[in-house]
Amino acid sequence: MKNTIGRLKNKDAVIGIVGLGYVGLPLMLRYNEEKYKVVGFDIDVRKVKTLMEGHSYIEHIPAAHINNAVKTGFEATTDFKRISEVDAIIICVPTPLNKYREPDLSFVTDTVDAIVPYMKKGQVMSLESTTYPGTTDEELKTRIEKQGLIVGEDVFLVYSPEREDPGRGDFNTKTTPKVCGGTTPNCVEVGIALYTPVIDQVVPVSSTRAAEMTKLLENIHRAVNIGLMNEMKIVADKMGIDIFEVIRAAATKPFGFTPYFPGPGLGGHCIPIDPFYLTWKAREYGLHTRFIETAGEINGAMPQYVVDKAVDALNVREKSLKGSKVLVLGIAYKPNVDDMRESPSVHIMELLRAKGALVEYSDPHVLIFPKMREHNFELSSVELNPEIIASYDCIVLATHHKKFDFKLIQEHAKLIIDTRGVYSGHLENVVKA
Q1: 16 strand-pairing partners
Q2: What phi-psi label fits residue 416: left (phi over 0), alpha (psi between -120 and 50 degrees) or beta?
C-alpha cells in the first residue's frame, strides 16, 4: 500500500482510464495537466484513432487540449493487455437501463472481465460509473478476488462517482469535490492518494455503498424536484399562470427555497436513469420507493404533454398535426452542449413523427443527427432565417441554446410551443408547454 501511495504522490504512477467519453476524457486531461503518464482504453477504434490524431469528438473539449495531451505522453488504445502497465485503473463506462427500465451493468461487468486477467499487485481500481449500492463489492470485488488477488492487501478497490456536468462555466473536474469510498480502510486511503493530486477536495466516506448511494441521492434529489415543478407547471397552466414567473418570484426568498425549472422531460446520462437504479435495488429489501417512482412517471410523461399542447394549439388554428411541418428547436438534452444522451427532444420528435407530422430540427451544436441505439432520424440541422422559420406550421422550443436568436424566431414563427419559459407575457404565436 505504501508503495502505491508513494507512486501516486510522486506522480510516478501510470494512470489508466477506461472509457473515453464525457467523463473519462476530462479526467484524462486533468491527470495529463498534472504531468502523470496516462493510458486511455476504449473499445471504439474510431475514438482511439481520433484522439491519437489530436482531435476531439466532444464539443466543449478543445482539440488543442487533446493534441497537447498526445504530445506530452497520453496514449489511447483498444488493447486491454496494457492494463498490466498501469498503476491505477479508473472505469468510466456507461450504466444505462434495459428496455424494462432495469439496470444494465453489462458495460461495467464486461469491462472488468476484460481487465482482471491483466491486473497485478499494487494496482488500485476505481469505478466512477453511476450504479446501485453494492455494485463495487458484489460485482467488482468478486471478479478481482477470483483471480487470486486480495482486495485491501494485494490490490485496492474504491468507488468515486463522477460529477461531470458538460458545459458548466463555474465548476470543472478540478474544482468539483470528489466523493470516495473504499472496500477497506486501506482502499480508501489509496483512493484519496489517487484523486488528491488532481481534485481540489476529496471527500472520503465510510464505504463504497455510501459513495454509491451519495451519487444516487444527488440525482434523485434533482429528478424529484424537477418532477414537482413539472407537475406544478401543468396545474399553473390550467389556471392561466406562468410557472416560470412564479418560480423566479419564489427564488427571491433568500432562504428555504431552491429554484428548479420544468421542461420537456429529463435528459442527460444520470438524472433520467439513476432513480431507477435505486428503485430496482430497493425491491431486494422489500421496499417500494413510491415518491421517487411518482416523480419518474411525471417526468417521463412530459414529452407527451408537449406534443398534446402542440396538437391543441394547431387545432385552434384549424390545422391537424398530421401533415404539418414541425421544427424541433434544440435536440441536445441541455443548453449550449452537443450531448444528446437521453434527450427528451428525441422522444418528442418520435411522438410527432408517429402522429404524422413532418419533423425536422435545428441545433447549432448537433449538425448531423447521430446514430443512436434506439432512435433513427436521417436528418441534419436546419439553418434558421426568416423564410425558413415562417415555413413551419409549428416550432417546438425544446432546448434553449444561447446561439438561437429567439427574437427573430418569435417575429417570424407561425406557432411556438415554448417548453423552457423563454418567452414571457402574452404573445399571440407562443403557447407555453
Answers
A1: 39, 89
A2: beta
Calpha distance 262→237 (Å, rounded): 12
Q: Are residues 75 and 162 in the same domain?
A: yes
Residue found by looking up cell 432495469 in the block: 102
Number of domains in the chain: 2
Is residue 76 in some structural domain?
yes
User: What would you report as the CA-atom Rg of the chain, rounded to the nearest whole angstrom?
Assistant: 23
Domain with 184, as residue range(s), is 2-205
Q: Is the pLDDT at 77 greater than 90, yes or no?
A: yes
Show the CA angle centred on residue 231, arms to residues 335 and 325, nearest 5°.
Answer: 55
Between residues 272 and 235, the one the model is more confident about: 235
Q: Are 283 and 200 within one domain?
A: no
DSSP code for 370: P
Would you call 2 helix, strand, or coil by DSSP? helix
Question: Could you tell me where the DSSP H helices lie in 13-92?
Answer: 24-33, 45-52, 63-71
Distance in angstroms (rounded) separating the CA atoms of residues 328 and 334: 14
- Domain assignment of residue 184, yes or no: yes
For the whole model, what pTM was predicted?
Answer: 0.92
| Contact assessment for residue 237 and residue 245, using Cβ atoms and an 8 Å cutoff | no
- Name residue 77's beta-bridge partners: 41
Residue 376 pLDDT exceeds 90: no
Q: Which residue numbers are catalytic?
A: 270
Which residue is it, cell 488500485?
A: 124
Output the domain CATH number for residue 259: 3.40.50.720
Q: How confident is the model at residue 186 (pLDDT cuts 50, 70, 90)?
A: very high
